[in-house]
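Researcher: Before we compare anything, I want clean individual predictions. No alignment, no superposition, just each chain on its own. First chain goes here; please echo the sequence and then give the structure tokens.
Model: Echoing the first chain and its structure:
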Amino acid sequence: MAKHSNDVLDPPDSEAVDDLASDSTEPATKSKLRARLLPAVGVLLLAASTASAVYFYLQYDEKRDIVDASAAASAAACDYAQELANFDFNTLDPYFAGVLAGATGEWKTQFETRQNDLRNLYTQGQVTSKVTEVQCATVSGDSDTAQALVVIGETISSVATEGKPQAGQLTMKVTLDNVDGRWLVSKLSAPQML
């Protein structure tokens, strides 16, 4: 049968109305939630990016400091080699002062202890040493201490060589300590010395 316009419809079910109402408000609530979460997520991403950048910068800066310290220690080892291997038996006081000025710790004590013996040996033997070449390389270290290998080419003249310079080579392993910003030799191992 056909329905007429004056037919009465049943009232809508209340659950159906609630479902329709929640469906229409749900997208608005989700978009409000997204609007609140997006800035928070952005802040978290920015904080994580900043923290990562700071971490990697500090790692780089620490490694750069170690590389710089290694280069400074190597240069100090080369300078000290010049001081140690250049001497003339006629002028030993400035030589001893220079060697001790670049020394610390065990090596300084050892050199001070042997200084008079060396003076007698060099004077009696009329020993003169001149550096011709120095090569240095830092083997390991950090900003406080470093180990370096040093190879010194030198000419030595003495009574034994009848005053004629003879070429020689001295190889040393040195430990350097950073003392108040100066790299000083604290240990020295050279089979040909002392």
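Researcher: Okay. Second chain, same rules.
Model: Second chain and its structure:
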Amino acid sequence: MAQYTYYHCTKRSKQINCTQKAIRVERLEEQIIDILKKIEIIPDFKDWCLNILKENHSEEIEKKEKLNNSMNRNIGRMENKLKNLTDLLLDDIISKDEFLIKKQSLKEEIVRLKEKRDNIDIDSHKIFENTQKVFNFASLVTEKFKNWDLKEKKRNICFSWL
């Protein structure tokens, strides 16, 4: 007994009036393969691109490490100023009011610098990882699609890998 699988619009959206008819799974997969062929890249090209990205990412990491070290030095200077400010208060060189104003200002600057330092590396690493995923996905994607089972097709075509 032959078994046929059809897909159709669920018509869940009230804003879209879907007029599409049901489609056999084989025809749907042909359409998906046509789309995948447009984004597919050969492994050599993928490797070449990823090598360049890794080099650029390594250079960016070096720059960010230098920036991170600079930020740490600035934070250290601010913390030393805070300590010296306390010494000035203890030695009665400045008033308590002057101390409190300057202390608040220094603490705010330290917090701002620490937040800035902590956010330096987050974005570029995520971008690099996602770019690698996209290139790996696009490498021979048509052949991969043909070999995936239904569950893998749904997962990968829905771009859950991003």
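Researcher: What stands out in the second chain?
Model: The radius of gyration is 29 Å. Additionally, The mean pLDDT is 88.
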